[in-house]
Fold:
Amino acid sequence: MPRGTLRMSIWCGVTSSEQRGQPTIFGIIIVALACLAGSGGPAAAIVVQPTDEQIRSVLARGKEAARNHLPPDVLYSRFGEAGERRPSGFLATRLGSLAVMAAHMGLRGLDPSPTEIARILKEPVMLVTAVLWGDHPSFAAESYMVLNQGERVIKPVMVRFDGRASLEGRDHEQPVYRAKVVGAFRYDEFDPLAVTTITVFPRDGDAISFVLDFSQVE
Structure:
């Protein structure tokens, strides 16, 4: 992989690209349509105020995942490209987080307490995690993330990133690094039913975007 290029390929057949008109460490912008690979079961948009039935359903799903010895993180709603060393990510919504917590505790033979359930249901933000690949350890440092819904730009209340990416192997003798960028977005600032573009802005590189239909996310 040539130095100065972010490893990213097209998925789902809908793409567009643009140039900023200035040199960058990544060299290209790729906007990829993200196909959600959900946690199973029907999706009915991002639920901000879940009903008791919805809560029971996702807790049961988490316990079932634990009985089947599935990794809890597979219960998050995922987006991006399937396969090794492909750009991807996942959303930690209230219902998704409940399912994951139930799976983690189920692996230890425990059930979430009412206090733990209430804590997640009161969480004011949804976490959006993007997993990116680059060719040097600091490629994700100082990254930023926003959501776009039509003409609206929703800014995060917090962004975390891996200042030093992990070395995952080599590609044609070039090192390949993996890093996460996490944005926290308030539920009361975005439309949980809208088609949404998640865009990550590396410090010195071009933007990487994923287009999701939030109405298909749980």
Notes: Residues 15-216 form one domain. The chain has a mean pLDDT of 83. The first strand starts at residue 15 and ends at 16. The radius of gyration is 18 Å.
